[in-house]
Amino acid sequence: MKAKKVLKQIAKIESLILKVTERSSPHIRELFRDAKAAVIRAKKAVQASGTAKNPSANDARHPSKPTPEPSRPKRRLSAAGRRAISEATKKRWAAKRAAAVKVVPAVAKKAAVKKGGCEESHSGEGGEKECASQKNEG
């Protein structure tokens, strides 16, 4: 546990001992005085060890940086490699565009041809008869 946290816990213990000591009988008060003395000794020990182990305030602000390991040189792509990737990408996209162009006309033809042969949509009754009569006229 960190020294600050331990000191907070010890302070709580001290305050609890004081509260209980006030309410207890003389024989028990003596035991609590001994306990309080032990707590105070522990507090001093934590304070002494905390200052010895913890760096000073200036050192805490500027911790020493570990020496970085020599890293491998960054890998770079040559101009020829970049050109090859670019050409392959262009070829791949051209193939996709060509496949998309082949699919679109097939879909368009299906949309143009309808059951009744009429491209207009009619609502209400007799709509089919009008289309049939327009076929006969044309």
Task: Characterise this structure.
With 138 residues, this protein is mostly helical. The chain has a domain of 50 residues. 72% of the residues lie in helices and 0% in strands. It has five helices and no strands. α1 packs antiparallel against α2. It is elongated and about 100 Å long.
Largest sheet: none
SS content category: mainly alpha
Global mean pLDDT: 75
| Residues in β-strands, percent | under 5%
First-last Cα distance = 96 Å
Instruction: Report low-confidence residues grouped into runs of 5 or more.
Output: none
SSE order, as H and E?
A: HHHHH
Report the C-alpha radius of gyration, rounded: 45 Å
Annotation field: number of helices: 5
**Strand tally:** 0
Helix proportion of residues, in percent? Answer: over 70%
Q: What coarse outline follows from CA principal-axis ratios?
A: elongated
Topology:
Layout: H1 3-23, H2 26-53, H3 57-61, H4 79-112, H5 127-137
Helix pairs in contact: 1-2
